[in-house]
Structure formats: C-alpha cells, structure tokens
Amino acid sequence: MTLAPLLAAPFAIQLHALAAISAFALGAVQLAAPKGTIPHRAVGWVWVGLMLTVAASSFFVHTIRLWGPWSPIHLLSIFTLAVLPWAVWAAHRHAVDRHRRAMTGLFFGALVIAGLFTLMPGRIMHKVVFGG
Ligand code: HEM
Q1: Which atom of ligand 1 is nearest to the CA of 80?
Q2: Is any ligand 1 atom within 6 A of the Cβ of residue 20?
Q3: Residues 4-46: pLDDT tens digits?
C-alpha cells in the first residue's frame, strides 16, 4: 500500500477520495450506532456534508471519458445529489422507514459499489492499495 499515487493526483481527486473514505468510515459507525439520538443527528449531518463533497468534487474528475469528459459514474453522482436531500427530508418528516432505506441504499449502493470499482486495475486506488 502507498499513498504516493493519491498525493500526486490533482486536488479534486485528493478531496474526492478523502471525503469518500471518511464517508465510508463514518457511515459504517453511523449504521452500527443507536438511531434517532443527538449523536446520530450530528454524525448524520457530517456524513451528508461528506457525501455532497464526494458527489460535487467528482464533476471535476475526468479520468474515464466515455461521453465527452463524462463517465457513467457521474450518473451515480447525480443520483446521490438527488437522493441525499430526499433522505434528509424523510428523517425531518419522521418517515423512518423511507429515511433508513434511502440512507442504507446510498451507503451500500453508491459508496461501497463505487468504492469497489475504484479498485479496478489502472485506477488510482488500485495503485494505492496494491502498489505498482
Ligand atoms: C470509498 C469510495 C470512493 C473512493 C475511494 C473513490 C475514489 C475515486 C478516485 C481516486 C477517483 C479518480 C479516478 C481514478 O480512480 O483513477 C474517482 C473518480 C470518480 N468517482 Fe469516486 N470514489 C469513491 C466513491 C464515489 C462515489 C460514492 C461516487 C458518486 C457519488 C463517485 C464518483 C466518481 C466519479 C464520477 C469519478 C470520475 C470518473 C472518472 O472520470 O474517473 N465516487 N473516485
């Protein structure tokens, strides 16, 4: 493992990866911890901020160019930006089941899946984790 490829990457990629890894760690804690408490709300807002940073910063990253400068993963960023406010709104309305499904869906469906795709050969996180 080496951080060198990430340290040599443009700022947008560094910010994106740092926010994504932090969101993964904090999200795992949030899913395991008691729900509806004041810490759950505080950690939840930080997690939402991190996910907004992950999605927004990705619009400045263009290493996979499938449609002009854009990649299919950018669709996931748009999806994340749409679902996040909806999931927060569900919590605000005490629609607990909708809130839980939307947030766990974002964690596993966006963060974990996109995170696993970053480990594909040739990508920066592959070099970070496996070297080379
Ligand atoms: C633990 C999770 C994640 C990590 C470690 C991560 C890391 C990275 C890195 C290092 C890149 C730069 C390109 C490369 O891989 O060489 C990248 C690109 C990108 N990521 Fe993520 N990411 C994660 C999650 C996400 C999520 C949740 C989204 C969407 C909401 C996302 C959207 C994108 C997009 C759109 C790109 C640009 C694709 C391209 O043109 O290269 N990522 N990611």
Answers
A1: 30
A2: yes
A3: 999 999 999 999 999 999 999 999 999 999 999 999 999 999 9
